Amino acid sequence: MTRITPPPSRIYLLRHAKAQRPASGQKDFDRALSDKGYAAAEIVAEKAVEKDYKPDLVISSTALRCRQTADAIRRAMSPSTEFRYVDALYDATTDIYLEIISSQATNDSVMLVGHNPTIERTLEALIGHDALVSAIPDGFPTAGLAVVDSTPSGWVLTDFVTR
């Protein structure tokens, strides 16, 4: 498990919702959400609000499908939630995701909207392999939202929200 010293004391990891298959010649970066993906992003955003999950900061990959997923979060969250879009989250390593999280020393809670397999590997780095496999044995689904809290003994998965 990875040690990140709070703040943040709560980390939200959101995998982008289901994207369309790439059109001929289309860059992966430019893939939009499918109709099911749009619906799933809205549902997960609404569930997060119902559970009173309110990140201070949302950091999203600049890939179209992540920006569209983050837009669903923006519509559901309070206007005070800050949003940033970071190129480095696209095609990034787990170390980059963790570095971005740990650099948020002024925010108590931060949400990353990113891509698999890195979002799943980041969760695994925080909570450990056994906890990951126990919580999501079939892998990190699209539009899945992991809620991870800091405890004296390390990071624990508090909740996993899906559509």
Short summary:
With 163 residues, this protein is α/β, with parallel strands linked by helices. Helices cover 34% and strands 23% of the residues.
Number of helices: 5
- Kindly give the count of domains: 1
CATH superfamily: Phosphoglycerate mutase-like
Cα separation of the termini = 27 Å
Outline: globular
Strand order of the largest sheet: 3-2-4-1-5-6
Radius of gyration: 15 Å
Q: What is the level-2 CATH architecture name?
A: 3-Layer(aba) Sandwich
From the 3D structure, determine the CATH topology.
Rossmann fold
Strand content: 15-25%
- Structural class, by secondary structure, is alpha/beta
Helix content: 25-40%
Protein name: Histidine phosphatase family protein
Pfam family, one: His_Phos_1
Give an overview in words:
- The chain has 163 residues and is of the alpha/beta class.
- It has a single domain, classed as 3-Layer(aba) Sandwich (Rossmann fold), CATH 3.40.50.
- Helices cover 34% and strands 23% of the residues.
- It is built from five helices and six strands, in the order E-H-E-H-E-H-E-H-H-E-E.
- A hairpin with a 2-residue loop joins strand 5 (145-151) and strand 6.
- Helix 1 (35-50) packs parallel to helix 2 and helix 4 (118-127) crosses helix 5 (129-135).
- The radius of gyration is 15 Å and the shape is globular.
- The two termini are 27 Å apart.
